[in-house]
């Protein structure tokens, strides 16, 4: 898994690619923690090149959601593939994140 982060003022754009398995989830957590520690108040996470997300990756996203929205942040996730979209809808993540 690979994460590329771009900051434009108070907005962060994160391009994620590969599989968000257990090691990938740890990489994602590190990248999201940097966003939490910054003064960003908006993040767009681009899943265009993500082909899999496991429960550990979902857990990291939920923890980030809790902490980022607590400080007033907005999260948008874009370009989910069909399978990941169905998963997010099945577990109601589409109600938390702007998708």
Largest β-sheet summary: 4 strands, mixed
Mean pLDDT: 96
SSE order in H/E notation?
A: EEHEHEH
Helix coverage percent of residues? Answer: 40-55%
- Contiguous low-pLDDT stretches (5 residues minimum) are none
Number of domains: 1
Q: What's the helix count?
A: 3
> Can you identify the CATH superfamily?
STAS domain
What is the spatial order of strands in the main beta sheet?
1-2-3-4
> So what's the CATH class?
Alpha Beta
Backbone CA Rg:
12 Å
CATH topology: Transcription Regulator spoIIAA
Describe this structure in words.
This protein is of the alpha/beta class and 99 residues long. It has a single domain (2-95), classed as 2-Layer Sandwich (Transcription Regulator spoIIAA). 41% of the residues lie in helices and 34% in strands. It contains 3 helices and 4 strands; from the N terminus they run E-E-H-E-H-E-H. It has helices spanning 22-37, 55-70, 82-90; strands at residues 2-8, 11-20, 42-53, 74-78. The protein has a 4-stranded mixed beta sheet. Helix 1 (22-37) packs parallel to helix 2 (55-70). The radius of gyration is 12 Å and the shape is globular. The two termini are 21 Å apart.
């Amino acid at each position: 898994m690979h994460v590329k982060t771009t900051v434009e003022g108070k907005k962060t754009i994160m391009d994620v690619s590969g599989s968000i398995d257990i090691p990938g989830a740890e990489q994602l957590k590190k990248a999201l923690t940097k966003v939490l520690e910054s003064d960003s108040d908006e993040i767009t996470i681009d899943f265009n090149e993500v082909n899999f997300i496991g429960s550990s990756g979902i857990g990291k996203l939920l923890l980030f959601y809790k902490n980022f929205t607590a400080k007033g942040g907005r999260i948008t996730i874009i370009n989910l593939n069909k399978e990941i979209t169905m998963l997010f809808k099945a577990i109601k993540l589409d109600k938390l994140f702007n998708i």
